[in-house]
Amino acid sequence: MEGDCLSCMKYLMFLFNFFIFLGGACLLGLGIWVIVDPTGFREIVAANPLLFTGAYIMLAMGAMLFLLGFLGCCGAIRENKCLLLFFFMFILLIFLAELSAAILAFIFRENLTREFFTKELKKHYQRNNDTDVFSATWNSVMITFACCGVNGPEDFEAIPHLPHSSLEKAIPEACCQRELQSREGMFVNKEDCLKGNERFQNRQGCYTVILNSFETYVYLAGALAIGVLAIELFAMIFAMCLFRGIQ
């Protein structure tokens, strides 16, 4: 009976580690996609240090889980006590790190509010000055997502216009509609857009557009994170039970 129980535990351990392996692969792939994706997500991540750090943490965690799941599968099948102990300690550290990251994300969630981005935009944005990293990033985001400002074009009313501009409250060029949503895309009607013709402007705020774009992925990432944490917890329990059961 004890041998059957040990054998069952071994295969359950293998199963849980296989799921950890898959979860790590998913997080690794998601992290790489967010960082290297050319369609604008990289610019959004770069616009906020918290998101930028989070993307790399996700990448690192995915790589570690990927490796850990592989090692855990080998340790369970071979019934190696040393490997199982190493696995338990390593996965415990990762579990605590992920838990800490989740707590920090909850604490600093106010840094991702509409008011925060609006304040930062009005404080640092320099319109079409692409030599400024902050301004260039915002311009890329607005062009990619066909949006304007955080809440809409009204965000730019308090931002000084360029010295050579004859328009007191001209919106930046990045808010003008383009045939293709990229810097290479031709303007639909740049002159009328800058004169205030709403027909040729992107009127929707970027906060709403991006939030809608990411809503599905946020829930998916949250569900995946909860699933990975639960699997890690069970894997630790089975690893210790298997460790104690091996003669």
From TrEMBL:
Entry keyword annotation includes Glycoprotein: yes
CDD domains: uroplakin_I_like_LEL (cd03156)
Entry-linked SUPFAM superfamilies: Tetraspanin (SSF48652)
A cellular-component GO term for this protein: plasma membrane
Transmembrane segments annotated in the record for this chain: 12-36, 56-77, 84-108, 217-243
Membrane topology reported for the UniProt record: Multi-pass membrane protein
Keyword annotations: Glycoprotein, Membrane, Transmembrane, Transmembrane helix
Keyword DNA-binding: no
The organism's place on the tree of life at top rank: Eukaryota
Subcellular location per the Swiss-Prot or TrEMBL entry: Membrane
Family assignment from sequence similarity: Belongs to the tetraspanin (TM4SF) family.
This protein's name: Tetraspanin
Organism of provenance: Sylvietta virens (Green crombec)
Gene label: Tspan18_0
